[in-house]
Design brief:
InterPro entries: DUF2442, NE0471-like_N. It is a single chain. This protein is of the alpha+beta class. The chain has a single domain, classed as 2-Layer Sandwich (NE0471 N-terminal domain-like), CATH 3.30.2020.10. The strands form 2 sheets. Strands 1-2-3 form a 3-stranded antiparallel β-sheet, with helices on one face. The protein is globular and about 35 Å long. The chain starts with 7 loop residues before the first strand and ends in an 11-residue tail after the last helix.
Length: about 90
C-alpha cells in the first residue's frame, strides 16, 4: 500500500468541535474531534473550550492550535478515507 503524503491547504472550524479540511491533493472532509477531546492529556484538555478549539490555524500545512498541538495531515486524511468521509470535488469547467 502506498501512502500519499499531503498537507492541509485550508481549514475551517465548525461548531461542535469539527474542522472542515481541504487537503493539498484536493480531497476534503469534515473531522469530528470530539473523540480526542475525551483524552485528559495536557495538550488536549485546553481544546475542550470550544473558543480555544476554534482558534485552529495552519502552520506549513499542519493543523495547529495556540498551545502548540499539531496533528499530522496525512494521518487525518487516512482516517477520513477509512471512515468514508472524504470527497474530491471536481472543479466546474
Amino acid at each position: 500500500m502506498t501512502i500519499e503524503y499531503v498537507t492541509v491547504a485550508s481549514l475551517k472550524a465548525l461548531p461542535d468541535y469539527r474542522l472542515h479540511l481541504v487537503f493539498s491533493n484536493g480531497d476534503e472532509g469534515i473531522r469530528d474531534f470530539s473523540d480526542i477531546l475525551e483524552d485528559a492529556g495536557p495538550m488536549i484538555s485546553p481544546l475542550r473550550d470550544e473558543a480555544v478549539f476554534r482558534k485552529a490555524f495552519l502552520t506549513y500545512g499542519v493543523p495547529t492550535w495556540p498551545n502548540g498541538l499539531q496533528l499530522d495531515p496525512t494521518n487525518l486524511r487516512l482516517e477520513l478515507a477509512e471512515r468514508g468521509l472524504l470527497s474530491h470535488p471536481v472543479a466546474a469547467e
